[in-house]
Specification:
Blueprint (H helix, E strand, L loop, with lengths): L1 H8 L4 H23 L2 H4 L3 E11 L2 E4 L1 H11 L6 E10 L2 E13 L3 E15 L2 E12 L1
Helix pairs in contact: 1-2
């Protein structure tokens, strides 16, 4: 898996590597839900009050309800190619830049690329996505 390989190749202290692995696990929930077209697989990655913003075509897409509905209506996108561009960990916050190529499905069409910026918060239960902003490369 691309995410696991990126984190494995990173040189960092043990605790930083542990944090990167925990963040990768959260992102994998998002990606697996995307691959299978099932929002219930990705919902555990998101805080219940998470924000979501970006343009889907000319219209502004707002709220995780939009995201989850879109994933379910789009259906499976099994050939997506995720690539983590950067991960910045700032104590209890993390910012992740993720590029995903190869989107397909009912709504996406084929061969679409998306850039996501995630903000995660480390809670007593672990890392959770509190914000996702995206750019759809049309």
């Amino acid at each position: 898996m691309v995410i696991a390989r990126i984190f494995t190749l990173m040189t960092a202290t043990t605790s930083l590597t542990t944090e990167h692995a925990a963040i990768a696990s959260v992102l994998e929930l998002y990606l697996e839900g995307s691959r299978q077209g099932k929002s219930e697989l990705m919902k555990p990655a998101f805080h219940p009050e998470a924000s979501f913003f970006g343009y889907a075509g000319p219209g502004l897409a707002v709220g995780t309800a939009f995201l989850f509905d879109w994933i379910d209506r789009n259906g499976a996108a099994p050939m997506i190619e995720p690539r983590i561009v950067s991960v910045d960990i700032l104590d209890s916050l993390a910012v992740v830049h993720l590029d995903v190529a190869g989107w397909s499905g009912t709504l996406a069409g084929s061969g679409v690329r998306m850039t996501d910026i995630f903000t995660l918060l480390r809670t007593p239960e672990g890392w959770t996505i509190i914000q996702k902003a995206f750019h759809w490369h049309g």
